[in-house]
Amino acid sequence: MKKILIFFLVFSTSLIAQKKVEVDLSNPNSAIYTHLYFLQPESYEPEKAATTIYGFEGEEAEDIAIKLKQILDGKGLKVDFSKVPSDTMFSDTTGYKIGNRYVLFPYQMPEVYVERIGGKWYYSPETTKSVNEIYDSVFPWYTEKLHQIIPEIGHKKFLKIELWQYLGLLILIVFCFILFYFLHKIIFYLLRKIQFWIVHISNDKINSSLKKLSRPLVLLVLMWFIQLVLPSLFLDLDVNTFLFLGINIMTTVFWIYVFLKLVQVVMSIYSDYAEGTDSKLDDQLVPILNNFLTGIVVFVGLLKLLTLFGIEPGAVIAGASIGGLAVALASQDTVKNLIGTVMIFLDKPFHIGDWIEAGTVVGTVEKVGFRSTRVRAADTSVYQIPNSSLSEMVVNNKGLRAFRRYTTNLGIRYDTPPELIEAFVNGVRKIIEIHPNTRDEAFNVEFTGFGDSGLLILVNVYFKALDWTTEQSSKHSLHMSILKLAADLGVEFAFPSTTVMIEQFPEKKGPMPNYAIEEKRIQQIMNNITKK
């Protein structure tokens, strides 16, 4: 039994050993695998890898094959063969060239691809012709000279990294720290110049935001510098893949941070501008715009992060579009209110602090938010009106009136002599003309009719002050001046009453008051009217 087990073990081992990888150019998967497999240290046969190069032979083809692998390794681009098609007649219908072709990394390196030529798959003639240009763009000019001066001891490995590569990484880190110190000052200075060039506003808040903005910008420059230098160290593919993934993630995070700080700077400048305008509606727009722009930056940044983990950008955008549509359908009221908010800020039917009438709601506008507008009524109660409804209402904005109109009727007794009526009307006109808060060129004071209980004097006046509190104070001073005039002239105000006239009883006097209508006295009273 033991001998039978040993026999089967030796037999299966020999079968495995006999299974050898051969050159196969029948489909994209096999062609790319042939190229990369025969350039691995344990299976290094460059002449077989060179069979994937179309139009070249011998050492020239081998050199192109080696450079192509070095380009992919240098950029940390690791082929996932589970995603590479094995269809002999595979056709790419998504690229700018429709045909039997497959691009290995369409977003990182679209110029490297394989295509079907004469029934077999090779690296395209366009790729092989431009391989030297691609190589020079990936590897810095000093790469070959650097490798020539490395001693033999420097090639000893520890955790897939050679000793000289450890030293190179250390030098790169130290250089980046030194570069950060100088670049931070330079970029902050340039940001200040750009900010002054765009808007001539400067304060501590803006300077603080610019300082915070300059740091991630410096880090982005350093990330670009590291990506430029890193291929020259010829690190292992797995190490490069890990490092480039980390760098790309950090770059995306830094870009998110940069745009968030840029939003803060823009909002700081706009906030200062809004504070300098008469409209308070602009002040309400600052937090709304800030939240909106922040949301867009975070959303786009998260989509970019998803693509770094192998998710196709098209699938991310399609998923985001479908998700956005689903959210929009599920929250139609919220979307309507958001559109209503945009319409309010575009049309500006009212401003913060305006007294408005919207349907049954009458009050002062206190706040315009994303979803609703807050209006405080005269009794201090608060109404929350959805912006979608408010944008469709007929809004009577009393805050936009040029003046506040005030109309009242003064009723005086029927037995007032015509001379006093005329003097009283002229006196009220003079009071209005000299009043500090009324328009002296547009008012009406006229004897307009006969009421049930008195003679009617129409007073139609316009106050210059637009706020409600000042209007009431102006009414108070106007009324007091009219009352004093009436008292001085002896004019009495009528009120609803019933008078029984008894004139034929002896020793009884009629109810007629004794009016003083001397012209000199009336003129003296008119001259005594002063500004109250």
UniProtKB/TrEMBL annotation:
Residues 333-396 form the Mechanosensitive ion channel MscS domain. Gene3D superfamilies: 1.10.287.1260, 2.30.30.60, 3.30.70.100. InterPro entries: LSM_dom_sf, MS_channel_C, MscS_beta-dom_sf, MscS_channel_2nd, MscS_channel_C_sf, MscS_channel_TM-2, YnaI-like. The keyword Nuclease does not apply. The chain crosses the membrane at residues 163-183, 217-235, 241-260, 288-309, 315-331. GO terms for molecular function: mechanosensitive monoatomic ion channel activity. Pfam families: MS_channel_2nd, MS_channel_3rd. Keywords: Cell membrane, Membrane, Transmembrane, Transmembrane helix. SUPFAM superfamilies: Mechanosensitive channel protein MscS (YggB), C-terminal domain, Mechanosensitive channel protein MscS (YggB), transmembrane region, Sm-like ribonucleoproteins. It is found in: Cell membrane. It comes from the Bacteria. One of its GO terms (cellular component) is plasma membrane. It is a multi-pass membrane protein. Residues 408-491 form the Mechanosensitive ion channel MscS C-terminal domain. PANTHER family: LOW CONDUCTANCE MECHANOSENSITIVE CHANNEL YNAI, OW CONDUCTANCE MECHANOSENSITIVE CHANNEL. Belongs to the MscS (TC 1.A.23) family. This is MscS family membrane protein. It comes from Lutibacter agarilyticus.
